[in-house]
Amino acid sequence: MRYPSLLTDLYELTMLAGYLEEGMAEQHAVFDLFYRTNPFEGGYAVFAGLEPALDYLEGLSFLPDELEYVQSLGLFKPRFIEFLREFRFRCTVTAPPEGTVVFANEPLLTVEGPLAEAQFVETALLNIINFQTLVATKAARITHAAAGAPVIEFGLRRAHGPDGGLSCARAACVGGVRSTSNVQAGMVYGLPVRGTHAHSWVQAFPDELTAFRAYADAFPDSSILLVDTYDTLKSGIPNAITVARELRERGHELQGVRLDSGDLAFLSRKSRRMFDEAGFPDVKIVASNELDEFVIDSIRDEGGEVDIYGVGTKLATCAGAGGGALGGVYKLVAVDGIPKLKVTSDIAKATLPGKKRVLRALGADGGMIQDVICLEQDELCGGDTVYDPRNPLQHTMLPVDVTLHELRRMVMEKGCRTHPPETLNVMAERSERELVRLPQGCLRFINPHLYKVSISRQLNDLRNRLIDQVLKGG
Questions:
Q1: pTM score, two decimals?
Q2: 10-135+323-471 fold
Q3: Could you tell me which residue, 348 or 394, shows the higher pLDDT?
Q4: pLDDT for position 346
Q5: CB-side neighbour CA atoms (13 Å) of 319
Q6: In the β-sheet with 329-335, what is the strand arrangement from edge to edge?
Q7: d(CA 57, CA 128)
Q8: Which of 45, 149, 411, 458 has the fewest CB atoms below 10 angstroms from its CB?
Q9: Where are the domains of the chain?
Q10: CATH code of the domain made up of 195-285
Q11: What's the chain's average pLDDT?
Q12: Which run of H or E residues covers position 284?
């Protein structure tokens, strides 16, 4: 799909015009996209949104009607409009593969190339990466809570607009929620589509049993009946069992029932027992109704017997403490080979200057130990001293026996992709593999273990030197 070139903030255009006026548009620049705090007060994030971001970058150009609108604003000179007419993205982009587990303060995307081009894409990249990474992370937390039970994304009706619903289904798959109720997402992304029926179906018939029979007649091999319109245990489940018997007599099987209200742990246990005693142990129990990782965790802790979870609002809107927005930022870190630093009164918010690499230290068993951000030319190995980016006075040594792996790779060179797109299932499998390699405690929902992200001695020295220069007025 084509993303509109005007999917941007006005200040990106005014800065572009200013760079052009100052003769700076072609200066060589490096920008890093990163976030400062793990979402949901958790221990990690799942990187997502790269392929849509590359689609945007690869197709970036200004159409005649877009140029006409920019001109109508009355802010820009004719020379700038002509500049935009020929504008294309020619930069190099470095990023982890989608589905990679990532952490606060480490560069996710690095964009390197002409200053005007690298600057202009800031807003759109943040829009795409922030939302999809947030959703993928929420999905990973939910699938972890489900402990192997399938999860269906049900969030379209509560998502933030049509594009939000489509992006949510895609990113949720990266995080492990591999099916959706969203038919458009099924067509666009090849996701399995799942669904049952609404309470209105039951209400439209004279009684619940008639409604169930009609649905089973229409879909004899795929019926999942919503059993809580009137009374789950006194009416819904008994009527579903009746229909299950009638289907079996005709050579079909009831696939499942959905619980959408009440005490889901208690109701799922009772429903399971009733179906088992009636001779239908393979009927699946589907639970929905404002679920998130905490509710699912409590259902399991209380002995609930749910086979499939349908998660909607809390996933599509990324609700919960530390949710709502990822808070990713896009910062200039070098111009014409000169490292640049943003300094604030809070050292923890000072950016990391220069073009950098991100290395992941793995133990002999393949487990993740820590990440290290270093300058492009740094040579690191086990036993080297590394520093806390939030507190330069704190440092530690890398274990001697670690193996260091590059976390990122070049994904675009001079505006062209360097790798073919991956499938969503490949991305989902990557996130699943990486999550189990995290240190113990990182997956906890409450007070998770904080995975260590360090910086190299050379990067620490460079940042301290630039901070000193700023403080001394130079």
A1: 0.96
A2: nicotinate phosphoribosyltransferase (3.20.140)
A3: 394
A4: 66
A5: 17
A6: 338-339, 329-335, 28-34, 109-114, 92-95, 409-413, 416-417
A7: 11
A8: 458
A9: 10-135+323-471, 195-285
A10: 3.20.20.70
A11: 96
A12: strand 284-287
